[in-house]
Amino acid sequence: MLKNITLSAEDRLIKKAREKAAASQTTLNALFRKWLENLTGQSRSPDKYRDLMKSLSYAKSGQSFSREQMNER
After folding, report:
1. Which are the contacts of 11, defined by CB distance < 8 A and separation ≥ 6?
2. In three state form, how does the secondary structure of the chain look?
3. Scanning 16, 48, 63, 69, which has the fewest C-beta atoms within 10 Å of its C-beta?
4. What confidence score (pLDDT) does residue 52 get?
5. CA–CA gap between residue 28 and residue 19 (Å, rounded)
6. What CA–CA distance (Å, rounded) separates 69 from 8?
7. CA–CA distance, 18 with 13 (Å, rounded to integer)
8. What is the pLDDT of residues 1-37, one digit of tens each?
9. Distance CA 62, CA 25 (A)
């Protein structure tokens, strides 16, 4: 269950944090939740895996490989 909390911070920090969130295509609220999970050591593995896969989605091999090619050492 999500609970609302109130935080105080300097305007310039909030503005910069919102800009960073927008650049990451997320919200300040989502960034804060992620920070809280990391702080408490309760990050969810599936979320971490999805984030990793999303961050690596730019990588393309440019071709398909056969089973033999993939197993070459």
Report:
1. none
2. CCCCCCCCCCHHHHHHHHHHHHHCCCCHHHHHHHHHHHHHCCCCHHHHHHHHHHHCCCCCCCCCCCHHHHHCC
3. 63
4. 86
5. 9
6. 56
7. 9
8. 889 999 999 999 999 999 999 999 999 999 999 888 8
9. 27
Write the single-letter amino acid at 5: I
Supply 5's token pair: 């909390």
Identify residue 59 by its one-letter amino acid code: A
Q: What is the rounded distance in angstroms from the CA atom of residue 24 to the CA atom of residue 32?
A: 13
Rounded Cα distance between 67 and 69, Å, is: 5
Structure token digits, residue 29:
């609220």
Two structure tokens written together for 57? 């989605």
